[in-house]
Structures are given as structure tokens and as C-alpha cells.
Write a structure and sequence with these properties.
Blueprint (H helix, E strand, L loop, with lengths): L2 H5 L7 H12 L6 E5 H14 L5 E5 L6 H11 L3 E4 L2 H10 L4 E4 L5 H10 L7 H4 E5 L2 H14 L3 E6 L12 H12 L4 E8 L2 H5 L2 H25 L8 E4 L16 E4 L21 E11 L11 H7 L5 E6 L5 E5 L4 E2 L9 E6 L10 E6 L12 E5 L2 E6 L30
Parallel strand pairs: 1-16, 2-3, 2-9, 3-4, 4-5, 5-6, 6-7, 7-8, 8-9
Antiparallel strand pairs: 1-10, 10-11, 10-15, 11-14, 12-15, 13-14, 16-17
Helix pairs in contact: 6-8, 9-11
The structure holds pyridoxal-5'-phosphate.
Pyridoxal-5'-phosphate (PLP) binds next to β9.
Length: about 425
């Protein structure tokens, strides 16, 4: 039989994944690899910029693009130095390698952890006093940061988290915001730098509820912003009014609510971001991993006798492919029709994927999956392979969860005149 007739009706990769597969194989990348399509990343960034109304700034969400070169590339594409951080481990490397960054925390950091940053910060061009906005969600946390500033002799910029309907904490009443601002004013070590109100819930609302929820969250933001602007009439233009995230940034088509939107995931579009509000963004991140074994029949231990029957009733489970790794927060995407097998179970080592008899996959062929989210998944594969114009062109290291500067403190060296701690060892 000729190869052509043998392949007739078989389901393999389409042109896009066939080219990506060839590029990965050319580099010998036959292990689980996170791939970013740089052209698509650039397309998504241009799409995002095209939706922003004049004057709307954007802030890159670092947790969702957790790789320094990826962040630097995105900063260049968007022309912004505004970053939103969610992990103190990333602050050390950003302060060292992106000294021009303007940082806003997207969640409150325990004050004791913030203290560790100041203890271990080694100076340089980055100035934490003017370039970091710590997020404050309660009066208690404000007092903890005031104490931190006092004990370390620091000046801190504080941004207030407001609850505009997501109900994930933050200040929800204008009078509570006023009280916090008065407290900040009474402390010369603290400077108010703005508000952060995230509205992810709006994109999840069905039908007409969405419009209602958007209106309500916008009104709440406006009410809080009015309090802040009336409190600091001379500093109105310096303040950061941050809002939105990938699924909601397109709702912000004027500057009456926030004046900057935070965006990360939408630039690489993992599966959970396949929503109507990101319809014109394209998937730009994939997991590629090789097939290690092909079984012509899917056999489940203990019920081998049902093998033919299950394949008859569900043709998509006829063949089994064991892949290198697995059990990621991801769904198979190419060749189409692959699926995990709940009955057989998941495996992080050699996961079983099933496909129909027509699935064109042999040992050492690559399969592609789409991560459901970027923030946790990107950190699991080592360096990201960057795919551009049919080739793997670079590798981008991902952030370490705990940068060297933030490792557990070692005991300080003993003062020279103190007795040895273990005299017998001398
Ligand atoms: C405070 C805040 N802003 C913005 C975002 C949006 O991030 P992304 O664009 O990656 O969805 C998040 C996501 O968790 C967030 O917590």
C-alpha cells in the first residue's frame, strides 16, 4: 500500500503544529517543553494596545508571564515599565534586572516578608522607595507596614485595594477609605500612591447581568477614586488607578474608572481565557511532549475483556498513546481528538492519552497541549522555547520561586570576641 493511501483519513497535526513539531525536533526537544509562539504573542500585544482608549496605561501581570525575558519583551512591545507582582520572590530579580520598573503588588504581602526584601536588597539603580507600591487591604495591614517603615527607617508607597464586586478583600466603603487616608497622612513615612480594584467577576456574569455588574463596579471605583482625588487634589495626576485583568480590560473604554489596566494571561491566551471578551486574542502557548509508546488497543487493567466493547461504543478511546510526563493543568489540542482516560487514571510520569484508530501518531512524534492557565504551568518545564517564523529561536528562563537573595536567613557570624559555641571542636 502506498504511503498516501495508508495515511488517507488519518488525523495528524495541521500545518501549524506540523511546522512547530519540526522546529522542536530540529532542536532535539523530545521532552516536555513549554513553547511560546512569539509572532502570536506580538499579535496579542498589538490587539490589546488597539483596544485601549487614549491615555489608558497598561501594567504587565508578571505572575501570568513568569519569565524575565518574556516580561522584558512584553515591556518593549507595549512601551510600559509598569509591572504587577504577586510574589515576593520575583521582586529581587526584577529589582536587579529591570531597574526601570514601576511595581505595584497585585495582592497584599505579609509585612514580615516585605521586611525581608528590605533586609536583603543590595541597592543599585532600582529605588524601592519610589518604585514599589505595596498593596494594603485593611487598617491592620497599614499599621504593620507603618511599623515596618519605622523599624527599618523607610519611606513606603502604599496603594489601597478596593472591593468593586469581586469580594476578595479590600476596602468596600468610601468612608473606610477616608479613614485609611487620614491614617496615612498622619504618618510621614507613608505615601498614598493610588487604588487597585480588580473586576474579574464581571466577565463571568451571564447575559444582562454582565452589563449591570460592570455598571456597579465602575460606579464603586468612581466613588472611591473621587474620595482619593478630593483628599489629594494636587496629586491627582500622579496617582495610580489600577483596574481590570485580561478578561475585562476591553470593558474599560474610557478613563472615568481606572486609568490603567493590568494584563498578562491574555497575551499568551491559555485555555481558561477562551472567553468572548478575548475572542480576538490567539493561543500563543503550548506544551509539546513526545509519544513514548503506542498501543493499538486501549487496555484497562482488570477489565481487559471489555477492550473491544469500549472501543466500539467510544471510538475516540480505541488507541492508547503514552506520553513523556503529563497530568498538567492542560488539555490535548493536537492531533485533534486526543483525550485523557479517567478510568485508567492520570500520570505525571507517562500519561495515557486516547485517540481513535485514525490518529496519526507514532513513537517519538510530538503531541501538543494547551495549558489552562499560565502562572503555575509555565514554571514546570525549565526554559521556555520561543518559536518564531517556523524556528525555535531562543530559550527564555522562567522565574525561580525563591530567588537566591530570599533564601532562609543563615545565622549571622559570631562576633570576634565571643567564645566558640563548641569549645571541644577547637
Ligand atoms: C489584581 C489582579 N489584577 C489583574 C489580574 C489579571 O491577570 P491576567 O491578565 O493574567 O488575567 C489579576 C489576576 O489574577 C489580579 O489578581
Amino acid at each position: 500500500m502506498s504511503k498516501k493511501s495508508k495515511d488517507a483519513g488519518r488525523t495528524g497535526h495541521d500545518g501549524y503544529f506540523a511546522r512547530m513539531s519540526a522546529a522542536l525536533k530540529e532542536q532535539g526537544l523530545l521532552r516536555p517543553t513549554l513553547v511560546i509562539d512569539e509572532d502570536r504573542l506580538e499579535k496579542n500585544t498589538a490587539t490589546m494596545l488597539s483596544h485601549l482608549p487614549p491615555g489608558m496605561a497598561c501594567r504587565i501581570v508578571v505572575k501570568s508571564l513568569p519569565s524575565l525575558p518574556l516580561i522584558q519583551h512584553t515591556m518593549k512591545l507595549t512601551g510600559t515599565n509598569h509591572l504587577m507582582l504577586f510574589d515576593l520572590s520575583f521582586l529581587g530579580s526584577v529589582a536587579r534586572d529591570v531597574p526601570e520598573a514601576d511595581i505595584l503588588f497585585g495582592k497584599p504581602m505579609p509585612a514580615a516578608l516585605a521586611a525581608r526584601f528590605y533586609d536583603e536588597f543590595q541597592g543599585g539603580a532600582f529605588n524601592p522607595e519610589s518604585q514599589v507600591q505595596w498593596l494594603i487591604d485593611t487598617p491592620q495591614r497599614l499599621r504593620e507596614y507603618a511599623a515596618l517603615a519605622e523599624t527599618r527607617d523607610l519611606h513606603l508607597k502604599v496603594n489601597i485595594e478596593i472591593d468593586i464586586g469581586l469580594h476578595r478583600g479590600g476596602i468596600s466603603k468610601p468612608e473606610d477609605l477616608s479613614a485609611l487616608l487620614n491614617e496615612i497622612d498622619a504618618n510621614p513615612r507613608l505615601t498614598f500612591s493610588g487604588l487597585m480594584g480588580y473586576d474579574a467577576h464581571v466577565a463571568k456574569m451571564p447575559g444582562i447581568l454582565r452589563g449591570h455588574s460592570l455598571k456597579k463596579s465602575r460606579q464603586l471605583y468612581q466613588a472611591m477614586r473621587a474620595v482619593a482625588e478630593q483628599h489629594y487634589p494636587d496629586r491627582k495626576n500622579e496617582l495610580t488607578f489600577n483596574t481590570a485583568g485580561s478578561p475585562t480590560y476591553q470593558f474599560h473604554n474610557d478613563l472615568t474608572g481606572g486609568t490603567e489596566v493590568a494584563v498578562g494571561s491574555g497575551l499568551v491566551k491559555p485555555l481558561d481565557f477562551d472567553c468572548d471578551t478575548l475572542a480576538d486574542h490567539v493561543p500563543a502557548c503550548f506544551i509539546a511532549t513526545p509519544v513514548l509508546k503506542v498501543e493499538q488497543k486501549t487496555k484497562i487493567p482488570g477489565i481487559e475483556s471489555l477492550t473491544g466493547l469500549t472501543a466500539f461504543f467510544n471510538r475516540k478511546t480505541a488507541k492508547a498513546f503514552f506520553i513523556y510526563g503529563g497530568n498538567w493543568q492542560a488539555q490535548p489540542v493536537s492531533p485533534s481528538g486526543l483525550q485523557t482516560n479517567k478510568l485508567y487514571g492520570r500520570s505525571s510520569n507517562e500519561e495515557m492519552l486516547n485517540g481513535s484508530r485514525k490518529t496519526a501518531l507514532e513513537v517519538d512524534d510530538l503531541v501538543f497541549l494547551r495549558p489552562t492557565q499560565s502562572e503555575a504551568v509555565f514554571l514546570q518545564f525549565g526554559d521556555i522555547a520561543v518559536y518564531k517564523e517556523g524556528k525555535i529561536t531562543q530559550f527564555w528562563p522562567v522565574f525561580q520561586q525563591d530567588s537566591p537573595k530570599l533564601r532562609p536567613k543563615t545565622a549571622p557570624p559570631a562576633p570576634p570576641d565571643s567564645p566558640p559555641s563548641n569549645p571541644k571542636a577547637q
